[in-house]
Amino acid sequence: MAALIQQDQSPFNPEIHRVERVLCFAAHPDDIDFGAAGTIAAWTAAGVQVSYCIMTDGDAGGFDPAHRADIIAMRDAEQRRAAELVGVTDIHYLHQRDGYLEPTHEVMRGVVRLIREIRPDVVLSMHPERNWRRIQKSHPDHLAVGEAVTRAVYPAVENPFAYPELAEAGLEAYKLPWLWLYAGPEERENHVVDVTGHVDAKLQAIHVHVSQHPDVAAMEAAVRKGMSVNAQRAGLPDGQSAEAFHVVAVNGPGTIAGF
């Protein structure tokens, strides 16, 4: 297993960098809950406004053939209930087809539009790089989310001449401070969040997605173990749980435009 450096090596310091608004991107309903619901619960508990954008409707998910006709409505209802459990009510969809997501300009325009509307301090997204240690984290739709969001974050969000119809509609260019990526390769992770106090909320949110879990006990055991391993890799005390991210500083005091 790739070792996470004991000392947090991300440029983000929660003691210094204020977070008031966060916009989270995922491919399918339930991706955010697996990847970051503990961190999101900690943010909302601290008064941070968190919004979700799910790029597909999750129409290819599930295991029961009897659910096919209702799967989109079912997964939307699951996601909304799960989000409420961690303090989130603002949910957006791009309505792309599950399994066919690509980082097209249609998708990137939708990402830019939403970032310019919400103007978050942090954009949280799936990672654009494949995780070879657990390839299930790297569903092609997950990678497409990461690529589309990363391309949108720089340069399109902050370029007033990118997708000019957005500026004409009043959505002005915006310099995003932080990009946080989840579900990527362990060797990229440089920031951990201690979510020990929010494990129950995270698991409750995941449990809501009943259409996606043929083996609930195995799912919960795997999630608990993953959070425990993250904490151990980060050098946290025994018994702690953590979520790990690849944090990228997009714009800050030392940023030079165009470099």
From TrEMBL:
Keywords: Zinc. Gene3D superfamilies: LmbE-like. GO terms for molecular function: hydrolase activity, acting on carbon-nitrogen (but not peptide) bonds, in linear amides. Pfam families: PIG-L (PF02585). InterPro entries: GlcNAc_PI_deacetylase-related (IPR003737), LmbE-like_dom_sf (IPR024078). The keyword Zinc applies. This is LmbE family protein. SUPFAM superfamilies: LmbE-like (SSF102588). It comes from Pseudarthrobacter chlorophenolicus (strain ATCC 700700 / DSM 12829 / CIP 107037 / JCM 12360 / KCTC 9906 / NCIMB 13794 / A6) (Arthrobacter chlorophenolicus). One of its GO terms (biological process) is glycoside metabolic process.
